[in-house]
Amino acid sequence: MTLPESIPRYPELLDGAGLKIGIVMSRFNAPICEQLLAATAQELRCLGVASADIRIVTVPGALEIPLILQTLAQSEKPRFDALIALGAVIRGDTYHFEVVANDACRGVLDTQLETGLPIANGILTCNTDEQALARTTQKGTDCARTAVEMACLIARIRENPL
To answer: Which of 126, 131, 46, 49 is nearest to 92 (CA)?
Structure first.
């Protein structure tokens, strides 16, 4: 079913020119996270985000990501248009996986909702390193596209509500 053309909508916009993007990356499971970062940064540049407008902060692990996202979201200089969380939580033999995966991802969502700043969640939660490595390129690309699209969408809504 298609919607009538008379219903206003905001079209998808993926123009990153002039956007300032912050990335918070976990150093735990570093090989996976570095590949996520490479894919994310490459796609941001493809979308027009200047390298000078990208800031990267690393933290020890996934549970530390939300606090630094919150700090960046509340910073005045530079003022970010969107943030990206990158990490990898790999299942082990204990319940610790569920705690870290759930709390880190919930912290990302809570920070986004509390600050009103879009945050693309690129924290992989996988059973094995191999599964995570297989997802790094697509997830990094998706996070870059999500951050740019959401930053553009929020700016358009604030400038011109439907």
So the answer is: 126
Q: What is the largest CA-CA distance in the chain?
A: 55
Considering the candidates 10, 96, 127, 130, report the single residue annotated as catalytic: 96
155 is catalytic: no
Q: Write down the pLDDT at residue 5.
A: 79
DSSP 47: T
Cα distances (angstroms) measured from residue 12 to each of 20, 128, 154:
19, 34, 11
Helices (H), 28-80: 30-46, 65-73
User: Which CATH code of 3.40.50.261, 3.30.470.20, 3.90.550.10, 3.40.50.960 fits the domain covering 21-155?
Assistant: 3.40.50.960
Within 10 angstroms of residue 135's Cβ, the number of other Cβ atoms is: 19
Q: Distance between CA atoms of 141 and 154, rounded to whole angstroms? A: 20
Token couple for 158: 């604030």
Average pLDDT per block of 10 residues along the chain, 162 residues long: 81 96 98 98 98 98 98 93 98 93 98 97 98 98 98 94 77
Distance CA 129, CA 14 (A): 31
